[in-house]
Amino acid sequence: MSQGPILELRGINKSFGPVQVLHDVAFYAYPGEVTALVGDNGAGKSTLVKCIGGIYPIDSGEYYFEGRKVNVTNPRAAAELGIEIVYQDLALCDNLDIVQNMFLGRERKRGVVLDEAAMEELAAETLASLSVRTVKSLRQPVSSLSGGQRQTVAIAKAVLWNSKVVILDEPTAALGVAQTAQVLELVRRLADQGLAVILISHNMNDVFAVSDRIAALYLGRMAAQVKTSEVTHSQVVELITSGRSGELGLKNGNGAA
Ligand SMILES: Nc1ncnc2c1ncn2[C@@H]1O[C@H](COP(=O)(O)OP(=O)(O)OP(=O)(O)O)[C@@H](O)[C@H]1O
């Protein structure tokens, strides 16, 4: 791919009080690709993603977006760049319907009145563009949806805002086999539409099924970022568990195309 990364981090450090969680981390994500972010519990995946999303300001390091150096010091700055995070707990409101959830906090208005028709149309268009046909009515409460459907709504909500980078935190963790397959298809479709997708996952099958690149964190350091087609399951497991892969002969943060 000739295009450069849409998002690139260099030398990122992040501490909480005396505890340094991220050490000199390099990371990049390309448009049209799924980048899997893997690592053991506590490796720093959530912290890295929260730095990308402006929830945690970085202590030092450089953050580039579309080739420009940027300061992302709060979630609004990230949203303005087109970066959206879909959290594991989804932050959907059970008592609200699909349209209300998708526009929560960013409602469309006509004068002082909510423009329900415009919101419903845009929600329908977005779901259709993602080839989501599993929800019966956009006016059904989110509490009536299955886990996979909820995940779909949360993802659709994230792409509604002309997003360019969508970060998904373990989107299949709570799902069964069929629903996992549906959500992975959706993840792939997002990338095929040109979005850069960052997928946090512990599931190697998911990672290999859907990702183009894999970034492996080990104890807060980027052990490697590699093309998925160039590594095996066991090499990735070795990167996650030991931070190294002898066979790959990779250096820290290496593997850029
Ligand atoms: N707000 C915080 N204050 C202090 N320490 C924190 C904070 N957030 C995370 N940490 C520490 O940073 C380290 C990395 O945590 P993080 O949640 O980023 O890892 P993770 O790779 O996402 O793990 P998991 O897969 O278990 O979610 C952990 O040791 C954690 O205890």
From TrEMBL:
Domain ABC transporter: 7-244
Keywords from the named record: ATP-binding, Nucleotide-binding
Alphabetized PROSITE patterns for the sequence: ABC_TRANSPORTER_2
Pfam family, one: ABC_tran
InterPro entries, per the entry: AAA+_ATPase, ABC_carbohydrate_import_ATPase, ABC_transporter-like_ATP-bd, P-loop_NTPase
SUPFAM superfamilies, per database record: P-loop containing nucleoside triphosphate hydrolases
A Gene Ontology molecular function term of the record: ATP binding
Name assigned to this protein: ABC transporter related protein
Organism this protein belongs to: Thermobispora bispora (strain ATCC 19993 / DSM 43833 / CBS 139.67 / JCM 10125 / KCTC 9307 / NBRC 14880 / R51)
